[in-house]
Write a structure and sequence with these properties.
Number of domains: 1
Number of helices: 9
Largest sheet: none
Strand content: under 5%
Structural class: mainly alpha
Distance between the termini: 30 Å
Shape: elongated
Radius of gyration: 20 Å
Length: 197
């Protein structure tokens, strides 16, 4: 399961790099791959984070890992990481409410980091290091930094980096941002966004 996750992340990295270098041709594949990662976390989080293969879920060794804590943590973090991936996709496509989603994602991952650190040091007092501590901490840390970076980067800078070859999209987005109630501005932004699908 982790190998599939790693492959999807590598593909996302390559497609996003190609998107930055060569423009809109790679926009849809990059966004679709991020959505696939989001779905993967949502559906298979409990298996990924507990290092369990679906075809061997009923083996004795895997049953011992599936206690209430591991299942609830795996499902919860799967939902959080899925939401984080969608937030990043929204931010790269400049969809409505992207900053709210990035803020929520940053808060959720920060809270998860604090929780896992607290849990780790509490267990460490009794020489009982949690099994999945590091993988949660790494994922939460990466998503937290990515969401925080996107959140703190001014929208104008993001537009310039991602759409410098498409001044029409930048103009349409800024016009809609300044006039969110204007139906014509909304329609023009939709028209420009459709160019990348």
């Amino acid at each position: 399961m982790k190998r599939t996750e790693a492959i999807i992340i590598i593909i996302i990295g390559i497609l996003v790099a190609l998107r930055l270098l060569f423009g809109g041709w790679f926009n849809s594949p990059a966004m679709i791959s991020i959505v696939l990662l989001s779905i993967y976390y949502l559906l298979f989080g409990v298996f990924i984070f507990n290092n369990i293969r679906i075809d061997k879920i009923f083996s004795q060794s895997n049953k011992s890992r599936l206690n209430i804590l591991n299942i609830s943590t795996g499902v919860s973090m799967g939902v959080i990481y899925s939401f984080c991936a969608l937030s990043i996709m929204f931010a790269l496509c400049f969809y409505t409410n992207m900053d709210i989603m990035l803020f929520i994602s940053a808060c959720l991952t920060f809270v998860s980091i604090v929780f896992f650190l607290f849990y780790y040091f509490r267990k460490k007092r009794y020489n009982d290091t949690p099994r999945n501590f590091y993988q949660y901490l790494i994922r939460s840390g990466v998503f937290f930094l990515l969401c925080l970076f996107l959140l703190l980067t001014p929208i104008e800078n993001r537009l310039e980096v991602l759409f410098h070859n498409y001044p029409e999209f930048i103009e349409a987005y800024q016009n809609y941002k300044d006039n969110p109630e204007d139906k014509e501005a909304e329609e023009e932004l939709r028209k420009q966004r459709n160019r990348f699908r």
